[in-house]
């Protein structure tokens, strides 16, 4: 049978018991229609999944609580054996990924490249249905892409595009991550996700993810400007203001001046601070005993510039969350928690 088709509608309500002896599903998934199953889950797009009550109860606290209640006798569906039917508010894709995590070995493991639509579906389901292990695995996977801690220098701290991002999500992965984090209360990934999103031109935000909230759009645009200002004031100002004995070598001063002039006209370079090599790597230091040539800086200035640049980059990185109005970096990578508040209605 064909894979379930995507369904953007995601009403968030408590699963309800069917009032009919004939559950209203129009088709079923052969890979998750188990002959000895005793529960039929019916998705919002009328797709049936015949699975085991014991498996659902083992992995989901919400299902365990529901099955502990007495079910009405008319909530039975005769399909070879009597089955309890439950109608869910989620689409077939979300239910498909959720169930395969329990039934298919290695269907999803942290560190395995996974489409963001699937990650979002599994995170929604695991959060709503209180599935601790699945939620932990998905959040762990997202933390591998968007590290929730400060890094050691030198830059580049982050790759141009994280290796775990699938090809189809390269252009908007950060915006999708922000949406997932907001919807399911995973704030630890937000600083790096916002940073990656800031490397995209703001004019593209609406086209890449129209569903992103107005507040996050505003935070991205304002945070991007704050980051650019901080980069020029903190990280790159030392290029022309080296805290060392005044250098009177014209070649050294001129080389640094030309480099600064080349970056001032390209403000977009500033937001790429942590995915690009440090500026001092773009010039050559002169040999210890020789005077610098036209495209070189003297060794003493180079060493001082390098040390100062690493310190200043570190300062900007530590302040990164504040530019986007987020909480500070945690002192340590926290245990993956349950959300403080649910963004769905039961």
Please provide a brief summary of the model.
41% of the residues lie in helices and 10% in strands. With 346 residues, the protein is of the alpha/beta class.
Helix content: 40-55%
Mean pLDDT: 79
- Tell me the radius of gyration: 27 Å
Query: What's the count of strands?
Result: 8
Shape from CA axes? elongated
Summed up, the helix count is: 13
Could you name the ranges where pLDDT drops below 50 across 5 or more consecutive residues? Answer: 1-21, 74-80, 340-346
Distance between the termini: 31 Å
Query: What structural category characterises the helix and strand content?
Result: alpha/beta
Topology order in helix (H) and strand (E) letters: EEEEHHEEHHHHHHHHHEEHH
Largest sheet: 6 strands, mixed
Strand portion, in percent?
Answer: 5-15%
What does this molecule look like?
- The structure is a single chain.
- The protein has 346 residues and is α/β, with parallel strands linked by helices.
- It is 41% helix and 10% strand.
- The protein has 13 helices and eight strands.
- It has helices spanning 53-59, 61-67, 92-103, 116-128, 132-145, 173-184, 190-198, 205-208, 214-235, 250-264, 268-271, 299-318, 320-323; strands spanning 16-17, 27-33, 39-42, 47-51, 76-79, 81-87, 284-285, 296-297.
- Strands 1, 2, 3, 4, 5 and 6 form a six-stranded mixed β-sheet that branches. It has a two-stranded parallel sheet with strand order 7-8.
- β5 (76-79) and β6 form a beta hairpin.
- α4 (116-128) runs antiparallel to α5, α6 packs antiparallel against α7 (190-198) and α7 (190-198) packs across α9.
- The longest helix is centred in the middle third of the chain and has 22 residues, at 214-235.
- The radius of gyration is 27 Å and the shape is elongated.
- It starts with 15 loop residues before the first strand and ends in a 23-residue tail after the last helix.
- The model is unreliable at 1-21, 74-80 and 340-346 (pLDDT under 50).
């Amino acid at each position: 049978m064909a894979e379930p088709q995507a369904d953007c509608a995601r009403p968030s309500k408590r699963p309800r018991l069917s009032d009919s002896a004939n559950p209203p599903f129009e088709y079923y998934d052969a890979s998750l229609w188990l002959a000895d199953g005793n529960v039929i889950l019916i998705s919002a797009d009328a797709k049936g999944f015949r699975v085991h009550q014991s498996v659902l109860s083992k992995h989901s606290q919400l299902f365990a609580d529901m099955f502990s209640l007495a079910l009405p006798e008319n909530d039975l569906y005769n399909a070879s054996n009597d089955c309890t039917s439950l109608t869910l508010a989620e689409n077939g894709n979300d239910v498909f990924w959720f169930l395969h995590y329990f039934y298919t070995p290695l269907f999803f493991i942290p560190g395995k490249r996974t489409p963001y639509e699937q990650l979002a579906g599994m995170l929604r389901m695991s959060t709503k249905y209180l599935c601790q292990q699945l939620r932990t695995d998905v959040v762990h996977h997202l933390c591998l892409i968007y590290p929730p801690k400060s890094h050691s220098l030198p830059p580049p701290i982050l790759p141009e595009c994280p290796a775990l991002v699938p090809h189809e999500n390269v252009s908007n992965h950060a915006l999708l991550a922000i949406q997932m984090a907001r919807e399911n209360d995973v704030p630890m990934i937000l600083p790096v996700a916002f940073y990656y999103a800031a490397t995209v031109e703001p004019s593209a935000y609406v086209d890449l993810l129209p569903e992103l909230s107005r507040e996050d759009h505003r935070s991205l645009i304002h945070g991007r400007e704050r980051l650019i200002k901080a980069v020029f004031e903190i990280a790159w100002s030392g290029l022309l203001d080296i805290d060392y004995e005044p250098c009177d070598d014209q070649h050294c001063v001129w080389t640094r001046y030309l480099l600064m002039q080349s970056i001032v006209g390209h403000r977009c370079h500033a937001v790429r601070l942590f995915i690009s090599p440090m500026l001092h790597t773009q010039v050559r230091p002169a040999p210890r005993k020789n005077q610098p040539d036209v495209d070189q800086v003297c060794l003493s200035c180079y060493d001082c510039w390098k040390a100062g640049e690493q310190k200043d980059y570190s300062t900007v990185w530590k302040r990164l969350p504040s530019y986007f109005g987020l909480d500070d970096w945690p002192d340590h990578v926290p245990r993956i928690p349950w959300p403080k508040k649910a963004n769905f209605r039961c």
